[in-house]
Every structure is written in C-alpha cells, then in structure tokens.
Amino acid sequence: MPHFTVTQMAKESGLPAHTLRYYEKEFLLLNVPRDRGGRRLYGNHHLEAIKFITALRGTGMSIGSIKIYIELYREGEHTAQSRMALLENHERDVVEQLQKTQDSLKLIRRKIDYYKEHVL
Questions:
Q1: What pTM was computed for the model?
Q2: pLDDT score of 119
Q3: CA distances from 82 to 4, 60, 101 (A)
Q4: What percent of the chain has pLDDT over 70?
Q5: Is residue 71 in some structural domain?
Q6: How many Å apart are CA 20 and CA 25, to the nearest integer?
C-alpha cells in the first residue's frame, strides 16, 4: 500500500499541507497513521477521501455539514440512509446554484454581445 507524506499528499491532492492537517484535526480525515518520527503517512483511501471532501467544499458544503456526514459514516452502515439524504439535499442546493449561475452567465453574455455590436 503506497504511503504519502504530507508534502506528497499536498502535491497529489492540490491542497496545502496546512489544510490537510486541519482536516485531520477536525476529524474529516480519519486514521492517519504516523511513522516512527511522527510524520503523517497518507494512503490511497485518504486521497479518495480528500477528493470527495474537495468536491463537497467546491460545491459549497460547509465544514460543519461535512463533519456530520463523516460522523454518520463512522457510526456505520446503518446510517447509509441518513448520509444519502444529506447528499441528496446538497445535490438540490448545487443544482439550484448551477441554475442561478447559468442565468447570470446568460446576462453576462448578452452584455458582451451588446458591446461587440456597439463598441467594435
């Protein structure tokens, strides 16, 4: 099983080392082992978790909501329905935000078209 140091994981994930440490401190990243020198050793499963957390953060989910999801995950399989509901609610929020962004983009493009016709 490959292991990444915090520097390697930062490079692999695109997140700064301090964010990785923060995620561990806040229990978003679970069970990060250490070598004899106390250095973190991340595995591929940590990288997958980081990618998922990054996707959730990138779509506007709060750290608090991610913590709730992780806590449910830690409780076991019997929380799968609750985790799915949390993700479905977030998905609805993301779709709504996407629609607002698309509407705004249309307005911006109309303004650009106006300038192309009248300024150039």
A1: 0.84
A2: 85
A3: 32, 19, 29
A4: 98
A5: yes
A6: 9
